[in-house]
Amino acid sequence: MLTSAVLVPSAPLLVPELSGDSAESAQVRAAATAAVRRLSEEAVHWVGVGVDSENAAGELWRSGVGHAQIGTFAGFGADVRTSLDADATGEPVQSLELCALVAGWLRARADEEITVDMHAVSAEASANECREFGKQLRKQLDSDNRPQGLLIVADGASTLTAKAPGSFDERAAGVQSAIDDALTTGDPEALLALDPQLCRSVGAQGRAAWQVLAGVFTSSSPSAHPRSTVDYTDAPFGVGYHVGTWRP
Fold first, then answer.
1. What's the predicted TM-score (pTM) here?
2. Domain range holding 24?
3. Residue 105: phi, psi to the nearest 5?
């Protein structure tokens, strides 16, 4: 049974060893950590959804990402290791998706006993495909009598300023405003209305994961909006970050 969905950035800067003493990073980190700790009080089994931007396997939806594996942020500058459950063993996998690394790092900040069943949706998936993935995921969540938490790991536009990772795109502010409004108000239909091509152009890779979230929350009662709370919404490094919770 779904208890709530927590939304966090897919950002290496959450990890102190990668971001140093930055006050901006500390704000995002504190918000994300507090949000997942609240989720851990409701459920010790989480289902995670992030974006596979490379789509090397050619699949629109992959389940079991990072299962029983150790991951590392070494590719981002520090060998900080993470896992999606306490029983993961072996040498670290260098190519584990960033969304799984972030989910594993946050899991450990919340409660080491938590397990995360991680899924990756392709950045190429259409809005309708994401909606259908979300509907199927909701069926899976509600078919389990255990309390289930949903963790959405996703970033907004990465082209909001000249110093942003994707440089500046004048269209990014409008896209990010639409994303922020939809996430803040708990509006699944507004998320589903995001244009995949435009989002891709401004570096908003999280679009696909958020549209899966929309599918989760429109599957049971299309007319009822989730209850949304916001912990953080900003773009301190030219990338849109959102931390919040949606409840059925």
1. 0.97
2. 2-247
3. -65, -45
- pLDDT tens digits, 144-189: 999 999 999 999 999 999 999 999 999 999 999 999 999 999 999 9
Please provide the size of the chain in residues.
248
| DSSP letter, residue 39 | H
Number of H helices and E strands in the chain, helices first, is 8, 9
Looking at residue 27, its amino acid is Q
Range 41-56 burial, b when 16+ CB lie within 10 A, else e:
ebbbbbbbbbbbbebe
Rounded CA separation 50/210 (Å): 9
What angle do the packed helices 98-110 and 23-42 form, to 10 degrees?
A: 70
- Give the separation between CA 178 and CA 173, rounded to whole angstroms: 9
Whichever domain contains 197, its CATH number is 3.40.830.10
> Terminus-to-terminus CA distance in the chain, angstroms?
11
- Assign 8 to helix, strand or coil: strand
CA distances from 102 to 99, 119, 144, 202 (A): 5, 13, 25, 22
Q: Looking at the 3D structure of the chain, how many domains does it have?
A: 1
The predicted-structure confidence for 191-205, as pLDDT tens digits, reads as follows 999 999 999 999 999
Strands 81-83 and 45-52, sheet pairing: unpaired
User: Can you tell me the distance from the alpha carbon of 193 to that of 211, in angstroms, rounded to the nearest whole number?
Assistant: 9
Tokens of 3: 């208890």
**CA distances from residue 125 to 102, 198, 213, 229, 242 in whole angstroms, order as listed:** 22, 13, 14, 27, 21
Interatomic CA distance for residues 157 and 198, integer angstroms:
10
